[in-house]
UniProtKB/TrEMBL annotation:
One of its GO terms (cellular component) is cytoplasm. It is found in: Cytoplasm. This is O-phosphoseryl-tRNA(Sec) selenium transferase. Keywords: Cytoplasm, Protein biosynthesis, Pyridoxal phosphate, RNA-binding, Selenium, Transferase, tRNA-binding. Converts O-phosphoseryl-tRNA(Sec) to selenocysteinyl-tRNA(Sec) required for selenoprotein biosynthesis. It comes from Euplotes crassus. Pathway: Aminoacyl-tRNA biosynthesis; selenocysteinyl-tRNA(Sec) biosynthesis; selenocysteinyl-tRNA(Sec) from L-seryl-tRNA(Sec) (archaeal/eukaryal route): step 2/2. Its cofactor is pyridoxal 5'-phosphate. TRNA binds at K270, R396. The modification N6-(pyridoxal phosphate)lysine is found at K283. Its EC number is 2.9.1.2. The lineage of its organism: Eukaryota, Sar, Alveolata, Ciliophora, Intramacronucleata. It catalyses: O-phospho-L-seryl-tRNA(Sec) + selenophosphate + H2O = L-selenocysteinyl-tRNA(Sec) + 2 phosphate. Substrate binds at R97, S98, Q105, R313. The record marks E74 as: May act as a substrate filter by repelling compounds with a negatively charged alpha-carboxylate.
């Protein structure tokens, strides 16, 4: 409300009280002004009331909420259900225009403002997370896999004669399916065993580039993965990509939360070639599944091409979720969450070791993975199926734990793999299980998990029969 109007209300409620009310509204307005001016995540979280007022102002700027607006087009942002209206804060136009998903939509100036602000806040979040080389970003309402495909297709558009993707093997089905959906052919490079860890076979990648770089669309690296695979050696790969003039594509699904990964990305950009990166919004920023960020170290490059290639408009949900989350989190809390995650990893590592030792197991050391850790299951009683341990833990309300054992050959995305899930045909330390310390997890959860792990292993060792699936506990296995 305008100052005059508020002070006028002093005639009704008393001048000095109206002045107080005005001060409060003004400081709230200043926060909004600062956001638009600075284009940064506020240092301290915004209060609910600030967010509500801002959202209402934004919605009022969109044509579907103009008073007495008369819509005569086929896309007028009409919402039938009140629940749906509420869930979308009266925003109905989504993002972009059919020609460019990042374009300003004149009918929806409020929504367009949110899209642009979210991009700036995301770039600021990257800096807070240690990534300081990123110049352009796009938040899309596509989960990571679809964004991987879309970006590969956009690269392919630039290099239509190139068919192959050098794929540093990671056993995450989406990764291969994304290549397949883009109608490309992966050349799988298995990681090599180094101590307990599986690391990028840089030599093999160079060999392929040396022989046939003109056919290679990109080298596809992944910087967040289940242990014992380390995140890829992207600095070395970036140098190769520069030398062989081949695009470097990085799947950084949940790597934003790890400062070391960010640091390596900075160095890879500085010393070599990195074209584009993709991260999940849910895995890094604690929002529901459904969004991802495509970003890169250059303006007017691949991210801009993805904007233009994207067919049609897009849902605004992923953008709004990220926008509101960053406002409610604030810079201070984001930093605190990152710090807590790092400490939790250390805490989990030290304390899980103590539990495992009692049963003759240990953590498999994977120096280049600071999110996920793998632990041996080599001492289970004879004949005991390690996957029963996984379903037992899931039925005891432990989610996220994954058990890997030697398995039959499996076809994923048209490629045959041995021991799929372990990132390697013949890793030495099967079976094992993995757990992770991810953003938002708490030390309390780790304590409860360790207690349940201890109880489960004790029971398996004393009465293995009691820990076998009764009816169809296989169904209890956590889906991947
Ligand atoms: C989660 C994940 C994906 C798939 O992400 P979606 O958001 O489910 O599409 C791809 N690659 C890696 C490494 C992941 O962790």
């Amino acid at each position: 409300m305008e100052k005059d109007l508020i002070l006028k209300s002093g005639d009704i409620v008393g001048k000095s009280y109206a002045e107080l009310g005005y001060q409060s509204l003004r400081s709230l307005g200043n926060e909004i002004k600062e956001l638009i001016d600075q284009r940064k995540i506020p240092k301290e979280p915004w209060q609910n009331v600030t967010i509500k007022i801002f959202l209402a102002q934004i919605a009022a700027m969109d044509s579907n909420n103009y008073k007495n607006n008369c819509g005569v087009g086929e896309r007028e942002g009409r919402i039938y259900s009140e629940f749906v209206r509420e869930r979308n804060f009266d925003l109905a136009h989504g993002i972009g225009r059919s020609g460019d998903v990042n374009a300003i939509q004149p009918k929806a100036i409020g929504s367009s403002l949110v899209v642009q602000l979210t991009k700036f806040l995301t770039l600021h979040a990257f800096k807070i997370m240690g990534l300081n080389c990123i110049k352009d970003a796009l938040v899309l309402p596509l989960a990571t896999g679809m964004s991987l495909s879309l970006t590969l297709l956009t690269l392919k558009d630039q290099y239509p004669e190139r068919e192959y993707v050098i794929f540093s093997r990671i056993d995450q089905k989406t990764c291969l399916k994304a290549i397949k959906t883009a109608n490309l052919t992966p050349i799988v490079v298995d990681p090599i065993e180094d101590g307990d860890e599986l690391i990028t076979d840089v030599e093999q990648i160079e060999k392929i580039l040396d022989e046939r770089s003109s056919e290679i669309l990109c080298v596809y690296c992944t910087t967040s993965c289940f242990a014992p695979r380390g995140y890829d050696k992207i600095i070395e790969v970036a140098q190769l990509c520069k030398k062989y003039e081949t695009p470097h594509f990085i799947n950084n699904a949940y790597g934003l939360q790890c400062g070391r990964v960010s640091n390596d990305i900075n160095l890879a950009v500085k010393k070599g070639r990195v074209d584009v990166l993709i991260s999940s919004t849910d895995k890094n920023f604690m929002v529901p599944v459904g969004g991802s960020i495509i970003y890169g170290p250059k303006k007017k490059d691949i991210v801009e091409k993805v904007n233009k290639n994207y067919p049609g408009r897009a849902s605004g949900s992923a953008v709004i979720d990220l926008f509101l989350t960053l406002l409610q989190m604030g810079e201070d809390n984001l930093r605190a969450l990152l710090k807590e995650r790092k400490e939790n990893f250390k805490y989990l590592f030290e304390n899980i070791q103590t539990v495992l030792e009692k049963y003759g197991e240990r953590v498999l050391i994977s120096k280049n993975n600071k999110i996920s850790m793998a632990c041996t299951l080599k001492n289970l009683p004879d004949g005991y199926d390690p996957t029963f341990f996984g379903s037992y833990m899931f039925s005891r309300r432990v989610s996220g734990l994954r058990v890997l054992k030697a398995g039959p050959e499996k076809e994923v995305g048209g490629v045959k793999f041995k021991n799929y899930g372990s990132h390697s045909d013949n890793y030495s330390h099967l079976p094992f299980f993995t757990v992770a310390a991810a953003i938002g997890g708490t030390q309390k959860e780790i304590d409860v998990f360790l207690k349940r792990l201890d109880e489960a292993l004790a029971k398996i060792h004393s009465k293995p029969d009691h820990v076998e699936p009764e009816e169809s506990k296989e169904d209890c296995k956590e889906p991947n």
